[in-house]
Write the C-alpha cells for this entry.
Amino acid sequence: MEFDNETVQGVWEKARATNDQDPDEWRKDECGAWIKFDQYGHQASEYGWKIESVKAGDQQELENLRPFQHENSFVPATGQARCRVTADREGISPTASIDTPRNKSAD
C-alpha cells in the first residue's frame, strides 16, 4: 500500500525515539528493532521499515497505523506484535550511549 509523505512522517513519529540517536534519523519499532527514516520501504536493509495496520477498518487512518522493522509485523487477530528482530544491546549498559545501532534476530 502506498502512503503519502505526511502519513509516513506521522507513522514515523509513533516509533520510539532514544536519547543517544537523532530521532529524525533513528527510532525503534515496538519490538525494539532499530529503523532508519530514509530506509522506509527498503526490505533489503537491516534498518528498513514498513507501515502496518493494527486495526480492521480504514487502512489509511493514521490512528490505525504503526511502524515496524521490515521483518517484524502486527497480528490484528491477537492484537500483538510479532517480533523477529530486536535491538542488540548485549554487553552494553542500559544507560550507555551507542555509536552505531544494531539489530539481532529474535527467533
In short: The mean pLDDT is 89. The beta strands are 26-28, 34-36, 49-53, 65-69, 73-75, 80-82, 85-87, 103-105. The two ends are 27 Å apart (CA to CA). The longest helix spans residues 5-12.
